[in-house]
Amino acid sequence: MERLKFASAQDLRKRIQDEFIASQTVHPVVGSIIEGKATQDQLRGFGRQMWAIPKYNYAVAGGKVSQLQPLPDDPYGMGVPYDLKVQKHFLNIIIDEAGTEVFPNAPTHGHYELYLRFAEEIGIPREEMERVDIFLPQVVVAMESWVRMARDLPLVESAIGMNWINEIRFSKMGSLIETALKKHYGLSERATEFWSAHGEQDKQHSSIGPYLVEQYATTPDIQERVWIAAKRGAGIWMIILDTIWMEYFEKGRAR
After folding, report:
1. How does DSSP assign 201-233, residue by residue?
2. Least buried of 112, 171, 172, 221, by fewest C-beta within 10 Å?
3. Which CATH architecture has domain 9-21+41-250?
C-alpha cells in the first residue's frame, strides 16, 4: 500500500488544520440546541451520550501523561527524553480535569462534577449517570476507542487526535451551548459551568497540537500515523454526535 506523503512536518500541520479544523461545521445536534429547537428528551439524550467524553477524563488525561516518558526502544515515542513545554501542558490538563476538589488552585471544580451538575438540572439523576448501561452501543465503541487512544498510542498521535482535533471542537461547542442552555432552557450558572469551562480551557488544551506536529512528526512513518490519528479523533467525535442525531432526533428515542 502506498504511503501517505507530506512535504514536511509543516505541510502535515497545515493539512490537518485545513481538513479537520478550518472546515468544521456545526453538527445538527449542536445546531438544534443552540437554536432552542431540541426537546427536553433530545437534550437529555445529548446529555447522556456526550457524557462518554468527560466520564473517563482521568483515564484519558492520565494515559497521555504516561506517554510523556516513552521507553528507550519505543520507535514512535516523543523522540526526546524531556520536553518541558509538553510536560507542563499535559500536567496542567490533569489539574484542570481534577479541579479544586484535588488542586485548590485549579480554575474550576473538577469536570466530572461539573458535568453531573449539568445532567441533574436537565433531569438526569446522578445515580443514572453512573450506571454502566447509560450509553448506546455505538457510543460504547467510540468511548472505548477514545480511552485506548490515550492509553495505547504515543503522545504525538493521541494528542493530535484528541487534544488538537477534538478539544478545539469542544471549545467552540462549549461556548455556544452554554449560551443556549441559559437562553432557551433556563439552566443556571451552576449547571452550565461545565460548558463555559470547556469553552475557555479547551482552547488552551488544544493549543499544543501544532507544536507537537512540527517538532515530532518529522519522519514519513510518524507523519502517516499522526494523520491517521487525526482521522480517528474526528471519527470518534462524529460517531457520538451522529448516534445522538439518529436515535434521539430521527427515531424519537426517549432514553
Report:
1. HHHHHHTTHHHHHHHH--SHHHHHHHHHHHHHH
2. 221
3. Up-down Bundle (1.20)
